[in-house]
Amino acid sequence: MTSAAINVVGIGGSLRPGSQSERALRIALDSAAEAGAQTVALTGPDLVLPFYDSAITERTPEATRLVEAIRHADGLVIVSPGYHGALSGLIKNALDYVEDLRPDRRPYLDGRAVGLAAVAYGWQAAVTTLDQLRTITHALRGWPTPLGGSLNTAEVKFDEVGGASEEKAVTTLRLIGRQVVEFARARH
């Protein structure tokens, strides 16, 4: 095992502070930290960015922070709310900024483990959102972890202290965070 620091970036949540998807993201990131990673969460206000336009080269400080965090990440955890059967525009726009990494030595999400979860009020939106996150991760050359999370908030509620009304949801998110770190270590 290498002693090099593993950096994991969490992207997720909604514009509502303490949203269910942000709480789910923090559970996965806490597990990544317990597995030895240095973590940073970019949520809600951090993701309020201009619509991505590759023709515009100037970036806001928030967009620059996002791109730089991803550039230096060994792994990511992405948690999106499911809105109308799809990932949120907030998360999709943030992921569009990964295009700025195209000319890098490690383009896009190349060689990075990406843990994914979708949080929605109903199974259909949770499952379709997770599928879209996996498709986007593949398109960006990332490696989705073997386990992904489809979390139905009609059945499970996340609390402010890192728990949930269903232990299975917490177990799933913790395993996703751990798998990101394990894959990143293996790649080092």
From TrEMBL:
NADPH-dependent FMN reductase-like domain residues: 7-146
Matching InterPro entries: Flavoprotein-like_sf, FMN_Rdtase-like_dom, NAD(P)H-dep_reductase
**Enzyme kind, highest EC tier:** oxidoreductase
- Which EC number(s) does UniProt give? 1.5.1.38
Q: Which UniProt keywords apply?
A: Oxidoreductase
| MF GO annotations | FMN reductase (NADPH) activity
Keyword Electron transport in record = no
The reply on keyword Oxidoreductase is yes
Superkingdom of source: Bacteria
Return the PANTHER family for the record: CHROMATE REDUCTASE (PTHR30543), NAD(P)H-DEPENDENT FMN REDUCTASE LOT6 (PTHR30543:SF21)
- Full protein name: FMN reductase
